[in-house]
Write a structure and sequence with these properties.
Structural class: alpha+beta
Low-confidence stretches: none
Shape: elongated
Helix content: over 70%
Mean pLDDT: 84
Length: 278
Amino acid sequence: MSTKDKFLESYKTLIIIPVMVTILALGLVATHGLDEGVDLKGGSIISLQLEQPISQGDLQTKIQDGIGINDVTVTESGNQATVEVKGSPDVTKFTNSINGIATINSYRSVGAILSTQALHQVYWAVAFAFIFMSITVFIVFRDFVPSIAVILSAFVDIIMAIGGMSLFGIPLSVASVGALLMLIGYSVDTDILLTTRLLKRREGSINERTIDAMKTGFTMTGAAIGAMVTLYLVTVFLIPSAQTLSEIAAVLILGLIADLMATWLMNLGILRWHLEGH
């Protein structure tokens, strides 16, 4: 028996891997928590024009000391800087803290009521995405086990991605939620590819159809991961002010890696188990 065949025949054991990673991700979120961005937690985002060279660390320290708030994040790009403050800093104190160092280009504040509404909208967006995705999958396959496997795989993918966000300190923001919604669509795409190849096609053995689906799926996911890694590196090292893009890229990288386990270990295992039972 070849290495590929041995891998495919050990599908019952391989299901354990994504299950354990999902439990670990839930544990991380439960114990370490998930940071919320300014859009969802409330606070202020200030764009600055730097008048003299200063490091991000020194600028952050000056602002923290000046406004009396420690939860401050500073991102610099050339002679521009973006400051995120969790809370409602006194504008006068903030202005005094950067006097002679920088001037304010724009100042945007998100209050507690707006942030709470935004967070509720996030929950509804994710819930509706799963509901409509589930309905669509049931209509397409009309078979309970494969449909549940697709939905479960998408759920596991999102949980793993959120666990990675908690581990690496990626905040839950409007941008990262958009990335999570994109992951639901991508996960369903790869799962439907696998399910269609195994259930709808009749050419070749189950192993041959599985390998054919894996070649296509790994090519798709590998290309997507490569594109997101490139985007992340470019934004982090060349355009540090584009923090939103780097957050989206980071979440997608985590989710795409998770999708490899969710689709090709768990969903594949469930489908093989289902087919052998018929």
